[in-house]
Amino acid sequence: MTSVDDICWNIAKTAIGDLGFVDCVVYLISADGEQLIQRATHGDKNPVEREILDPISIPIGAGIVGTVAKTGTLELINDTRADERYILDDSFRCSELAVPILHEGRVVGVLDSEHPDPHFFSDEDVKLFMTIAALASTRLDTALALERLERQAVELDTARRAAESASNAKSRFIASVSHDMRTPLTAIMGYAQLLMDDVGSERQRNEWQQAIVSNSEYMTGMVGNVLDMAAIESGRLSLSLEQIDVTAWLANVTSLVGDRASRKGLELEVIADSNAPKIWISDRSKLNEIVMNLLTNAIKYTLKGRVTLHIADAVDKTAPLFVLRVTDTGIGIAKDVLDRVYEPFTRVHDEQQFAAIEGAGLGLSVVKSFVDALQGQITLTSTLGVGTTVEVQIPMIAEALGTAQPALLRTPHINRGPAVTHSTPVAALSGATIVVCEDSDTVASLIKIVLEREGATVHTASNGQEGVALIESAPAAVDLLVTDIQMPVMNGHEVSRHLRKIGWRGPIVALTAFAAVEDERRCLEAGCTDYLTKPIDVNVFPTVIAQHLTTKRDHSV
């Protein structure tokens, strides 16, 4: 099928140009029906093949051609100098002939020709142009209909792709949140149950209590970010302005993150310029969220060194500015992903190299939204392997900006899955040798404690490669493997496939924070014997492991 452009250029060049006319423009009515668009030309307006010099559009009803499009009646102007409707395009010409292109009484476009001489166009020329317009009308209408269909198809495809992208983003978000909640829940629930069982030394019990606190803090921050993001996306974000004592506020927010920094062996430095504001009018909770997210982010991505919070002031053209600058000596961000740091659910660090750094990828997205709500600005600079600096400038808000309904916060529902019950006695664990591959020290330690108190010997590995090496060093001595899936160096799927390839036939139990149906399928296809999701129940988990050991021994008899 010939395209609209093919038809228009054939009219201009062949039907008009080859007949000796020095000028021609083929106009078509725009998709919205409001404008005439130049689609093909002949003469000075066409300096290069199929190219229009300075194309213009004319509103329907404007000028001579716009009048023809509106009325559906041809216009023959013998001397345009006497017609005030004449629109000068590339150069002035005295004669103009504009003929409507009609299809079933409806104007599709206008065929327009001009000539430098007055009284140039004859009655025969008028008949010729009307014939050309009539012959072209049906083909143009059909081609335009197809063009519209193609455009709609493109729009539908774009909408489909956008919907798929949104669905994929939602799936990634659910998987990410599920993973990042199940990992700390494993530590919280496991150590809490150990404490309830009144086991362990005083030092161990203190360590378990601290693990519960730190993992609870992590979950609290993540759930808060998710809820904040929900409020932002639903348009329910509100502002509540109040006078803030900056010194007291600063002492409070830094005390909340001081323990996190010290537990990682990091120095938390707070610097306030002498001219830093003492009183500030803003939304206290939003400022809290901004600083807390920036500081916890910096601590999370800093393995050694320090995190610095610098408070200062500045002045722009309209208002004083409260300046918050957080600098770290962390892993940094690669240049090619800097433009993605504010995208929700996006992690821009190397997840293979730094698999132990967890998060839903919401912190900076929430910060950016809150800074925007406070009419401020945020800038981020980073050098990979050196560190990152984030600076936020918040202007003084001297009056209420208006508030929407406050966000309705709901307690998040956590699906722990169906309860697992087994009657197999845990005596099967006595004397068993088990390897645990888990990059979370707290989870690995928990599993080791839970299994060893039932008589097993447990060797831990912080990544899959270490775990494989332990088994390969004495394959017959290892009775069972428990492996996480997301680990650095070698993940759980790779571990399972490798061990099955070399012929190791012991039970492999996948213990993972990935909890979707396809995650179970991937684990079983990789060669795992069983698939368990975090968090674990420390009273049930040994029974599940014992069941696999009993099954193994039954098969070996």
Give the CATH topology of the largest domain.
Heat Shock Protein 90
- Whole-Å distance between the termini? 75 Å
Helix and strand sequence: HEEEHEEEHHEHEEHEEHEEEHEHEHEHEH
- Report the portion of residues in β strands: 15-25%
CATH architecture of the largest domain: 2-Layer Sandwich
Going by helix content, strand content and strand pairing, the class is alpha/beta
Radius of gyration: 36 Å
Rounded mean pLDDT is 82
Q: How do the strands line up in the largest sheet? A: 3-2-1-6-5-4
Q: Going by CATH, what is the homologous superfamily of the largest domain?
A: Histidine kinase-like ATPase, C-terminal domain
For the record, what CATH class of the largest domain applies? Alpha Beta
Unreliable sequence segments: 349-355, 400-423
Task: Tell me the overall shape.
Answer: elongated
Explain what the structure shows:
- With 557 residues, the chain is α/β, with parallel strands linked by helices.
- It folds into three domains: 4-156, GAF domain (Beta-Lactamase); 238-395, Histidine kinase-like ATPase, C-terminal domain (Heat Shock Protein 90, 2-Layer Sandwich); 426-556, Response regulator (Rossmann fold, 3-Layer(aba) Sandwich).
- Helices cover 41% and strands 20% of the residues.
- It has twelve helices and 18 strands.
- It has helices at residues 4-16, 63-71, 123-196, 202-233, 246-263, 284-300, 363-373, 441-452, 464-473, 492-501, 517-525, 541-556; strands at 24-29, 35-42, 57-59, 75-77, 95-103, 106-115, 241-245, 267-272, 279-283, 306-315, 320-328, 377-383, 387-395, 433-437, 457-461, 480-483, 508-512, 530-533.
- Strand 16, helix 10 (492-501) and strand 17 (508-512) form a beta-alpha-beta unit.
- Helix 3 packs across helix 8 (441-452) and helix 6 (284-300) runs antiparallel to helix 7.
- 36% of the residues are buried.
